[in-house]
Amino acid sequence: MSGAIGAGSVVPSLQDKAAPASYDDLVSHVIAGRLGPDPRTLRIAVAFTTSQVVRHDGRRGGYRNEVLSLRLDRAVGSCAVEPGALSEDAVHDCVGADVARLLEHPLTPVRVAALDAYLMHVTPHTPENGALPRPLPAGSSLEKSRARAKAVVELLDVRPGRTVLVVGVVNSLLEALRSRDVPYIPCDLKGGRTEWGEPIETDALAELDRCDAVLASGMTLGNGSFEPLREHALRTDKQLVMFAQTGSAVLPRFLGAGVSAVCAEPYPFFWLDGGPGVIHHYGHGHRSRRPSGSGHRDGCTEAAL
Asked: Which of 196, 169, 211 is nearest to 299 (CA)?
């Protein structure tokens, strides 16, 4: 693994703060105003969806992807959704609404995007908040996908022969693991087969006992499978690395509470243009540890970027 900071450097980190006991605990802290401004006083100015259909040159398959994003002042919070699952009325309902109301919205993607926007507002991805920037070079869609995958896989710390459960099949990530001779179990609710013809499992929780580490998409926040994965990692001391377009400001809050490291990618995402970009590493070089006093089926996933 390549180091992101020099030897002896000290970077403030969310890992040094008290981690929430659970996702619901984090939400309750926000609603109570314990992490920043009262969310009842903050309103969403812009709500929008980003939809794409992609087939990289040289790849056999393609995919569709859709993301709900909410803008709060300078911050944008996001949650991936199944294409076509979010109605136009649901998006309109977010505009002008206060964050507290959206945190109790009946639709999970709205709640996750609102939480992400709030936490991005109070703790943006900056070195002062523990984020280590990782530049992405300009390039084609496939070149940028591979560069992003390399940056994600750098956060894994697995010995030879150790198996990684990949929750959210992204072919570039699998390709990066294959280049390092790291065995993996691909898992995605959509099932099917990988670019190399491997069967894709559909129940991540059923595969946990077969793996030594977990690499999971932030969209597990949107389908309820994040908490079981986090609890398993905390109980077994397995490494849990998250790659996050969904909830990029949410997942760093769980460093030391089951989450080992996060590759955070806020909007705008790498696939939106061919220019240079940046993603952010959290917890690089740290192992998961139990926080003092701390106490949905199936893995799913951002589309195969």
From this structure: 169
Separation of alpha carbons 99 and 197, rounded Å: 44
Query: How far apart (Å, rounded) are the C-alpha atoms in residues 113 and 118?
Result: 9
Sign of the CA dihedral with 233 first, then 4, 187, and 77 last: positive
Q: How big, in percent rounded to 5, are the helix, strand and coil portions of the chain?
A: 30, 20, 45
Q: Which residues of the chain have pLDDT under 70?
A: 1-17, 54-63, 284-305
* pLDDT tens, position by position, 241-295: 999 999 999 999 999 999 999 999 999 999 899 999 999 999 964 433 333 333 3
> CA angle, corner 212, sides to 26 and 263, nearest 5?
45
Q: Is the dihedral of CA 241, 151, 20, 11 positive or negative?
A: positive
Q: What is the pTM of this model?
A: 0.87
Distance CA 113, CA 99 (A): 10
